[in-house]
Amino acid sequence: MNSSLYGAGAEYALHSLLILAGRPDPASVRDLASFQKIPERFLAKLFTRLKKAGLVRGLEGVAGGFILAVPAERIRVMDVLAAVDPGRSLFACDEIRRQCALYGAEPPEWASSGRCRIHAFMIEAEQALHAFLGAKTLADLAGEYESKAPKDFVAATGTWFRQRKSGRSEARVGRPAPSNQPT
What we know:
The chain has a domain of 116 residues: Arc Repressor Mutant, subunit A, CATH 1.10.10. 55% of the residues lie in helices and 4% in strands. It contains eight helices and two strands; from the N terminus they run H-H-H-E-E-H-H-H-H-H. The longest helix is centred in the last third of the chain and has 24 residues.
């Protein structure tokens, strides 16, 4: 079983935001989902959360879509994770230390007082993870991506999104104007 702390929502959101970080104009959720071959409805829900968190801004109209609400340098990875997976924690302590067969009906004070040491250890690890993710920004990720991806792929990505937007605009222009006359 492959279980992870953060799920597909975190991956989809981060990849989509990387695309927006590299674009001067908006991209629609439909285009972002189509480009990455991920579920559009799920991505739309994620963008609702990202917008509510102030990380993206929506622009209306045929040429609309989403843009980053703040520069990529100011979007911390932890902000994105908190927006799409709020309340996620590394460890859930069920206090099983109080259930040892040797204790009988009531655990002794030394065994049940204070925070469970395993829980305390996991909280410390989670704080270190949050500090690391809080120190990394979307711009850091974009820089790493740009150093790996071939320049022709980055250019082709921009062309793909421009063609999608152009196709929507042309389809809209080609439609007959709505009539006020009853049919």
